[in-house]
Amino acid sequence: MAFFQHLKRQDKRDAGSDFLAPRMRLKHVALMALTASTVQLGCAGDEDVSQAVSDEEDIASEAAALSLYQQNPVGNLSVLSPAEGAPYAIATKSAWTSAPGLSSAVYSHAGDNLEISFSAEIYATNTVWLRALVDGAPVSPSDVKIKMGSENFDGTRSFTFVKSGVSAGQHIVEIQWYVVNGGDAQMRDRSLVVNSAAPFSGDGRLAVAAAPSGPDLIKTTTAWENVPGLTTQLTTSAQQDLIVTFSAEASSNSGRMFVRALVDGVDVGNVTLLHANMSNRGGTRSMTFVAPSVPAGNHTVQIQWSGDTAGGDIRLGDRTMAVSAAPASAPGGSTAAATMQGAPVPFSGLNWTNIPDLSVNLNTQAPAESAAITFSGEVYSSSGRLFLRALVDGVPAQPGDVTLIQGEPLMRVNSHTFVLKNLRPGNHTVTLQARSDTGTTANIRDRSLRVTAKRRSGSDFAQAFMGIGQGYGHSPRVRTHKALVLCIDPVRPDHAAPSLSQILNYHEGGDGGMSMKGWLADNTDGKLAFDSFQYVNCGPFAQAPAAHQGNWYWDTPGGHAEAWRDAIRAADPSINFHNYDTNGDGKITRDELVLVVVRPQNSAYGTNRSVDVAVDGNSTPLNFDLLDVYLSPFDSDRRNGVGLLAHELTHRILDAQDMYGCDSSSTASKYFDAMYWHWQATHMGPFEKLKSALVTPDLVEIGSWTTQTVPLASIETRKEVTLLWDAARGDKEYFLLENRWGAGDVYDAPLGSSVVVWHIVEDPTLAAQHPPSGAESCSIVHKQVRKLGQLTFDGEARELFWADGTRTNITVTARGAFGELTNVEIKKQGLIVRPFPRSTVPPILTK
After folding, report:
1. Which residues pair with 402 in a beta bridge?
2. Taking the chain, what is the end-to-end CA distance rounded to the nearest angstrom?
3. By the 8 A CB rule, do 412 and 378 touch?
4. Phi, psi (5° rounding) for residue 185?
5. Mean pLDDT of all residues in 585-594
6. Sheet harboring 821-828: ordered strands across?
């Protein structure tokens, strides 16, 4: 190891000040001294190598769930950064609440590990907890204190959650946050990155470690020691950079805390994680270390910590480590990294300035790649703010910039991850820049840049979309709900009440027929479900108070709200409603209870509403979110009633938006979306399913496509959809092909079988500029979600046009019989001719 001693970085503990003289720069330096030991480790690890080969064979032999997706040997990556805007306040206190816009699907191979990285600007003067869910279950650690202390805002906060050994297929990843009643928190610019890769096989590899949650570790010595729980191994198949990301809840009551990463016992970077006297800026810290050009073989990676004060008091709480390696450039993805240790670099003034030594070249080969760009480093500021941004070929990634830190002259580590979609093939320059407030001098010392890019998968489209929908818009989630059904009869002579068995059938399908519960299971594949139903006053219905009978609810201003109160009051002796208010905030929300109030009516009708009612002997009213529905006693109206319940439920638990109200549009979805016409209880449309990750998208990148005939799997039974987009145009608009196989599904049976062609224009400006015919005066959502038509027989075809009338040069044609798998030719044309006027619908072509 004599040669390596020459490369070893200076130990910060040897200096009496944080502001050291320049140290050795380790950018793009091969760790050559590891070679001898690595060869030996490689021999000792033959068993692991064999396992890797076996795993690769397993991956290759996995049944392809999608027609077009090809297993990516570097793994898959989903990235997300909601549009920048004003801070979002936490919606619910003392309960885990979805972080606005931070949920996504990710596609994994069997046995993949997940690295889930969160970054955000967070405002709070109290403790804010954070957790990550995968398919509805918390990953490791179960939660962290992302921000603590009295300082309302001190910059970005980051943490990396991990999960090992997931199953093959699409997974839903969601970030949630939590503050206690009486507290408050806001989140502004933010990002979510989910990296999925195998630990033992493929070109890209990922090992993860998480220490068991428990009491804080307390260290009082200055010796370097392993951080318990943060040792792992990674086997690489080629010489590659090793990227080590450490995240932890960290604090110091006395002295500075230092952290370093070791690869095969060799120090590849050490930083001042934080100082003492920073309890007002407590929470998590995250640092990425870079070991350049590590030879192929088996490698042991460890995180160590030390203090600079004997008898001091430094602490680590929940903590994780992720270790990744991938080729610099490959058909499935690309990676680049840089690291620098040296004297502090000052930034003063409003002009954006390159951060020295944090610029890399990235060579991408896939038609479109998603990229994550992570900065981490030691930072401090005399008083004001230090801003950070990432540029790719001179264009800002998302978010456009963040406030990395605000104030505090003591050094600590801060980090943030930026994201970019649709990175095109070629050489790219990635640069980090910083600037400060006027009159502020902020400094960056030891630092690193990590860029991970991977061929885009369809799951990178299946993620939160805040532009269409109620509340925060559509977002992937996995939930199990409780339902309480309250029945009340206003005793209108011409509207008899359904029986108890009919009410049970409407909601649960006790007779084996269609129901709200069955519809939900059929549409969501169990990602959204009910675990219990309770019925009160439904056999027979409770009668409305005498003064409220007949048409009183309809004829009296505010009468309908009184109907809901009457139903709740009638159930009050039987139900302790406060038991459902699990967080004690005085509101019964959808995650606590799906409340359905049923009134009799010969034809189904419904709404979503809320009402305040004093219950349980408590004079302070509870606020109830509820489904207000009218159900018929006629079995012939069963499908209509189930469709109504499904429509209103989808509003409530998926934030879906009404799609009806534009029958004049040439692209109205009508019965092909339960959020348009619900009367036949057909499925929701593919856009709602896509953005809620209820289907797995297959991808066609139009720019690189060559003509193929592909089997489209039934959206009802296989939960798949095919998405066509042009990476050069971005995600502003795209097309969806779905195989609606009514012959194989009780809910979609009225639709028959066809291939349905949709045009989704996510960009509201583009949609408004080029509306479909007949939708000019309709709301913006009718201009964004467009059903172009159906292919109903062999040879029927449709040419696709962009919103502005420009040809895509793609024609889709039905080939053969319709069934659970229906063949569609997606033909790429070379001939460019004059586009159709945008005011007309492109014609259906027949062969």
Report:
1. 388
2. 73
3. yes
4. -160, 150
5. 94
6. 708-713, 821-828, 807-815, 796-801, 844-846
DSSP-derived 3-state class of residue 611: strand
For residue 325, the surrounding DSSP H or E stretch is: strand 313-325
What H or E segment, with its residue span, contains residue 56?
helix 46-61
Per the prediction, the chain carries an average pLDDT of 90
User: Which of 13-27, 531-545, 580-594 has maximum average pLDDT?
Assistant: 531-545
Q: pTM (2 decimals)? A: 0.91
Closest Cα to residue 232, out of 257, 215, 254, 210?
210
SS3 labels along 731-749 = CCEEEEEEEEEHHHCCCCH
Question: Alpha-carbon distance 570 to 488, whole Å?
Answer: 8
Q: Is the confidence at residue 606, as pLDDT, over 50?
A: yes
Contact 756, 822 (CB under 8 A): no
Q: Shortest CA distance to 462 belongs to which of 107, 20, 38?
A: 107
CA angle 278, 281, 284 (to 5 degrees): 105
> What's the whole-number mean pLDDT along residues 319-334?
97
Is the pLDDT at 846 greater than 60? The verdict is: no
Those residues whose C-beta lies under 8 Å from the C-beta of residue 708, and which sit 6 or more positions away, are 825, 826
**Residues 449-472: b if buried by 16+ CB within 10 A, e if exposed:** bbbbbbbbbbbbbbbbbbbbbeeb
Residue of 608, 605, 703, 677 lying closest to 649 (CA atoms): 608
Express each pLDDT in 725-772 by its tens digit: 999 999 999 999 999 999 999 999 999 999 999 999 999 999 999 999
Please, how many CA atoms are within 13 Å of residue 378, restricted to the half-sphere of its CB? 28
* Token pair belonging to 261: 């990463």
Helix (H), strand (E) at residue 505 = helix 500-508
User: In this structure, which amino acid lies at residue 94?
Assistant: S
Question: How many residues would you count in the chain?
Answer: 847
Phi/psi at 559 (nearest 5 deg)? -65, -35
Measured from the Cβ of residue 362, the count of other Cβ atoms closer than 10 Å reads: 23
Whether 667 contacts 841, CB under 8 Å: yes
> By the 8 A CB rule, do 567 and 487 touch?
yes
